[in-house]
Amino acid sequence: MNARQWVASVVMGASLAGAAFAASAQEQMIPSMVYRTGPYAPSGIPVADGYQDFITLINQREGGINGVKLRVEECETQYNTERGVECYERLKALGGTIFSPYSTGITYALIDRAPADKAVIFSMAYGRASATVGNIFPWVFTAPITYWGGASAGIQYFASQLGGKDKLKGKKIAYVYIDIAYGKEPIPVFQNYAQELGFQLELVPVPAPGLEQKSIWLQIRQMRPDFVYLQGWGAMNAVSLKEAAAVGFPREKMLGVWYSSQDSDTQAAGAAAKGYKGLTFHGASRDLPILKQLKEVVLDKGLASNGAKHFGEIGYLRGALNALFVVEALRTAQEKFGKGKVMDGEQSRWGFENINFTEEKINKMGLQGFIAPMKLSCDNHLGDGKALVVQWQGDQWKPVSDWIEPEHPKLWPLYLRDAEAYAREKNIASRVCAKS
Amino acid sequence: MFYRESGQFKTSYRADQAIFTIPQDRIFFALFMLMAYVGVPLIASDYLYTALIIPFLCLSLAALGLNILTGYCGQLSLGTGAFMGVGAVSAWNLAYRIPDLNILVVFILAGLITAAVGMFFGLPSMRIKGFYLAVATLAAQFFLPWLFVKWGWLTNHNSSGVITAPQLELFGWVINTPMEKYLFALSIVALLALAAKNLVRSNPGRQWMAIRDMDIAAEIIGIRPMVAKLSAFAVSSFYVGVAGALYLFVYLGSTEPDGFNINLSFQTLFMIIIGGLGSILGSFLGAFFILLLPIFLTRVPPMLGFEFSTALVSHLEFMVFGALIVFFLIVEPHGLARLWQIAKEKLRIWPFPY
Amino acid sequence: MMFFLEVLIGGLMAGVMYSLVALGFVLIFKASGVFNFAQGAMVLFAGLFFVGFMELGVPLLLSLLLTAAVMVLLAGVIERLVLRHLVNQEGIILFMATIGVSFFLDGFGQTIWGSNVRQLDVGIPTDPILLFDGDILIQSFDLYAALVAGVLLAILVVFQKTRIGRALRAVADDHQAAQSVGIPLNVIWVIVWSIAGLVALVAGVMWGSKLGVQPAIVSLALKALPVLILGGFTSVPGAIVGGLIIGAGEKLAEVYIGPLFGGGIENWFAYVLALGFLLIRPQGLFGERIIERV
Question: Do A215 and C128 count as a contact with CB atoms less than 8 A apart?
Answer without folding.
Answer: no
